[in-house]
Amino acid sequence: MARLMLPERKSLVLDEHAAAALFRDGMTIAIGGFINSSHPMALVRHIIRRGIKNLTVVGAASGGLDLDLLIAAGCVKKLVTTYMGGEHYCPVAPFFRIAAQRGELDIFECDEGMFYCALRAAAQRLPSNPWKAGIGTSFPEINPEIKVYNDPVSGEPMLAIPAIKPDLAIIYAAHSDAFGNVQHIGTGFGDRAMWRAAEKTIAQVERIIPNEEVRKNPLATSLVGVDGVVRAPYGSHPFAAPGYYIEDGEHIREYVDAGNAFAKKGDRGPINAYLEKYILKPKTHEEYLETIGIRRLISLHEY
After folding, report:
1. I need a surface site. Which of 79, 163, 170, 248 has the fewest CB within 10 A?
2. Nearest Cα to 285, choosing from 229, 222, 204?
3. Dist CA 65 CA 228 (whole Å)
């Protein structure tokens, strides 16, 4: 009796260089995470190494110093986020602040509700989504892409929030199987919105686990069938990874000091030294971790 032959499932695991080859000048790239946690830093560093320019960078809704680093390296033309800082390390990110004050950065001004509204419009393949909460504010004046209109059904004034559709989303998560079924530790709320809106999503994870492990707890699967998976242990460093390690405060302060030297004194020496030591000289994620050192890394374990 003939047996039904099922096609073999294709592994979506990529090495970091294959994933980095997707980056192009002028792209719209969404970068997941939340302030000092859960950023796909192994891939973010490759954006800088490859000299990618003129990016529109989306988020996170509460953006962290990962985005500031891209601004410092001259990669960003336009920024979509509602907050830019490092909480108690620096309330406002230094390179973002200077670029904004000088008018060197095109900023899509919005609040957090508008941010997710724009991603939802892209996910629904709509040109815009209606939003009511911003009526009466100055958002339509400072962001001409946001339009005021009267709803054709109720006649109420509404805001039309234009869709923001990333060409590529790069997301950090705890683990995934080889087939792109990703599980966060935590909600991954903002990451899910980016994944739904983007044309393509690459997930950078701490571990790749068997599909059987994913099936044990399907409710934990946050992203289904992403386009590629990159394994990068300690891949969120210097930021935290829930369930794995806390943020590296010493390293973040080193970056902030370099940023403040530029913001307060116009001195790019410290940030140029930072970029050379941690990004341009190490050619791989493993070389970056060697630069950080095993003693520092194992001191960051959360448990």
Report:
1. 163
2. 204
3. 25
Q: Where are the alpha helices (DSSP H) in the chain?
A: 16-20, 41-49, 65-72, 94-101, 112-123, 139-142, 189-197, 211-216, 249-265, 269-275, 285-292, 294-298
- Give the residue among 64, 61, 72, 74 at the shortest CA–CA distance from 25: 74
Cβ(254)–Cβ(274) under 8 Å? Answer: yes
Given a contact cutoff of 8 angstroms between Cβ atoms, the answer to whether 192 and 30 are in contact is no
Sign of CA dihedral 87, 62, 174, 297: negative
Instruction: Kindly list the distances between the CA atom of residue 12 and the CA atoms of 144, 152, 197, in Å, as whole numbers in the listed order.
Output: 40, 45, 20
Give the integer Cα–Cα distance in Å for 287 and 290. Answer: 5
| Distance, CA of 234 to CA of 298 (rounded, Å) | 10
Contact 64, 39 (CB under 8 A): yes
pLDDT, tens digit, 9 for 90 and up, residues 166-197 = 999 999 999 999 999 999 998 889 999 999 99
| Kind and range of the H or E run holding 148 | strand 147-150
Helix 65-72 vs helix 41-49: crossing angle, to nearest 10 = 10
Residues 47-76: tens digit of each pLDDT: 999 999 999 999 888 999 999 999 999 999
